[in-house]
Amino acid sequence: KEVYGVTYPEWKKRHQKKATEEQLRLYKESMHLHAKHDSETLKTAVNSSVNKCPLSKRALIRLQAGAFTSLCHHLRIRSDTVPNMELMTISGFCRNCLAKVCVSFC
Q1: Is 103 in contact with 37 (CB distance < 8 Å)?
Q2: Is the torsion defined by CA of 63, 89, 97, 10 positive or negative?
Q3: Is residue 85 a contact partner of residue 19, using CB atoms and an 8 Å limit?
Q4: Rg (CA), the chain
Q5: How much is the pTM?
Q6: pLDDT in tens, 47-105
Q7: Are the C-beta atoms of residues 35 and 93 closer than 8 Å to each other?
Q8: Nearest in space to 15 (alpha carbons), one of 69, 81, 72, 74
Q9: CA-CA-CA-CA torsion sign (95, 97, 102, 106)
């Protein structure tokens, strides 16, 4: 199985580092902000935002796809400076969360 173009063991060797005590503390403090991965909630949120948007459904899908593609590209090229723990602490989601969202929509 490949992750960002390399095998998972190779990716872990290159990028995965043990979290510092400070990162772990910040992660625990921000737990209430983290995304919940309930597929029904995700479907409801997406459907309600689509209905309120004045754009055509096709235009909205293209904009969302572009934003998603841009985010994925950014996270891939910046994986050395944007580790998962920092991403979770700051935004409430990580690369794994993003992958779970993708799987739930597939």
Answers
A1: no
A2: positive
A3: yes
A4: 16
A5: 0.39
A6: 555 456 577 888 888 888 888 888 778 777 777 776 777 777 777 777 777 777 777 76
A7: yes
A8: 81
A9: positive
